[in-house]
Specification:
Layout lengths: L2 H14 L3 E4 L2 H8 L4 H5 L6 E5 L2 E7 L3 H6 L6 E5 L17 H21 L6 H11 L5 E5 L6 H10 L3 E5 L1 H7 L5 H24 L6 H14 L3 E9 L20 E10 L2 E2 L2 E7 L4 H20 L6 H14 L11 E3 L6 E4 L12 E5 L2 E3 L3 E3 L2 E7 L2 E4 L8 E3 L1
Parallel strand pairs: 1-5, 3-4, 5-6, 10-18
Antiparallel strand pairs: 1-2, 2-3, 7-8, 8-9, 8-10, 11-12, 11-13, 13-16, 14-15, 16-17
């Protein structure tokens, strides 16, 4: 765990009078340990927990995930497995005459196998049993446990309550959300990296767009470029013409035509951190209506960015952006939010929306000004900014204006 995360989680423990925190959601487990479970990505019912306490950290996983833990980048002081899964453990030795590098690799492999044997030797029968063992491993055998309850089905919550009857379980989803509000140096570096990879993928697509290219071809090109650069796309919206008016469209075989608007809404993940880049282009010179709408949304975006600073409430940023858009040419503009934080999840608190909380230095926000007219056209702009002492610092490198394709 990085020092920033440790500091934020320690504050959460102390602020809630808690003896331990138990993470449940994939993002919160990753915040504590850095571990992302592929098994849970395939089957969301997979039970995984992460424990943080003054005495250390622990990770609870199904036995099937144990090799991923020992071979991956996740870190925890203790790993506790649950459930039966057949794993063979090899302890191969390097062949006679092997190079020093091969011998070193073999030693590393044997150490990995030894660790795997140690953590899978006696798996707990259930995830609740494993969590009890994990709490004991970090020195917490009674007291108040903050449970990340927001994503817990009722049946699992009841099972944990029965098994952990000796503890006092209190809701702690908000405690994790509060800890994650402010990003540390490593997190900011990851967010900036994946943002730039996404923008590079966007540049690749812009270079191939011409009449006749389909949405699916453009989406495939983006996915290939992002993957080549080490990121995984989780959102690829490249919509042409009136298809851009659908907020969440799948790519189709629709071909680009002269005069079409092109709406990009792209997101990737790398090292667990997310990006979101939304830009607009037009095939050929824009019509007066296209330019007027875009200019109004761009004005609102700039107003939002200018308003981002410590102490400013998310609701105030929302009001500022909406008011600027109405004044700039869309008097009837309505919107439920104009942005949110981004990090281990695509959308995190705080929100730039009515009731949005105050901003703090170190938050990373995505401001956005979408506009959809079903059957006609759709527009989206996003910009990612880091809240700094004097205001905000933009993290994007790509051109924000309306891009004219020729």
């Amino acid at each position: 765990m990085y020092p920033h995360q440790a500091e934020r989680l320690t504050a959460a423990l102390e602020g809630g009078g808690l003896d331990a925190l138990v993470a449940v959601s994939p993002a919160n487990v990753a915040y504590v340990t850095g571990f992302w479970s592929l098994a849970r990505a395939v089957d969301p019912a997979t039970e995984i927990y992460a424990v943080v306490a003054p005495g250390g950290t622990a990770l609870v996983v199904p036995t099937m995930e144990a090799p991923a833990v020992t071979e991956g980048e996740g870190q925890a002081d203790h790993v506790v497995c649950h459930g039966r899964f057949v794993l063979e453990h090899g302890l191969a030795s390097p062949p006679p005459g092997a190079s020093a590098r091969s011998a070193t690799a073999a030693d590393t492999g044997r150490e990995s196998v030894r660790r795997l044997r140690a953590i899978t030797g006696e798996p707990a029968p259930t995830a609740a049993d494993a969590l009890a063992t994990a709490l004991g491993a970090v020195g917490v055998r009674s007291g108040r446990i903050g449970l990340d309850d927001a994503s817990l089905p009722a049946v699992r919550l009841e099972a944990l309550g029965r098994r952990l009857a000796g503890y006092t379980l209190v809701p702690a989803a908000r405690a994790f959300a509060t800890a994650r509000l402010v990003k540390g140096p490593y997190e900011i570096e990851c967010l900036q990296h994946v943002l730039h990879v996404t923008e590079q993928g966007l540049d690749t697509v812009l270079g191939l767009l011409r009449p006749g290219v389909t949405e699916q071809e453009a989406a495939t090109a983006f996915a290939h470029e992002a993957t080549r650069r080490g990121a995984t796309p989780y959102r690829i919206i490249i919509a042409f013409g009136d298809g851009a008016a659908i907020p969440t469209p799948w790519p189709t075989d629709r071909a680009l035509r002269l005069g079409d608007l092109v709406r990009f809404d792209l997101g990737c993940v790398a090292k667990g951190y997310r990006s979101n880049v939304a830009r607009m282009a037009v095939m050929g010179e824009p019509s007066q209506r296209q330019q007027t709408v875009f200019d109004a949304l761009h004005t609102g975006m700039q107003a939002a960015l200018d308003a981002l600073r410590p102490g400013m409430e998310g609701s105030q940023v929302f009001d500022t952006a909406v008011s600027a858009i109405r004044t700039a040419g869309l008097p009837g503009y309505e919107r439920h939010h104009t942005g949110h934080a981004i990090g281990l999840e695509p959308a995190e608190a705080p929100w730039l929306a009515p009731g949005g909380a105050a901003l703090e230095m170190g938050m990373v926000l995505c401001a956005e000004t979408p506009y959809y007219v079903v059957g006609d056209a759709g527009f989206t702009l996003t910009e990612t900014a880091l809240i700094i002492r004097s205001g905000s610092h933009g993290l994007n490198r790509s051109h924000r204006g309306l891009i004219v394709l020729d």
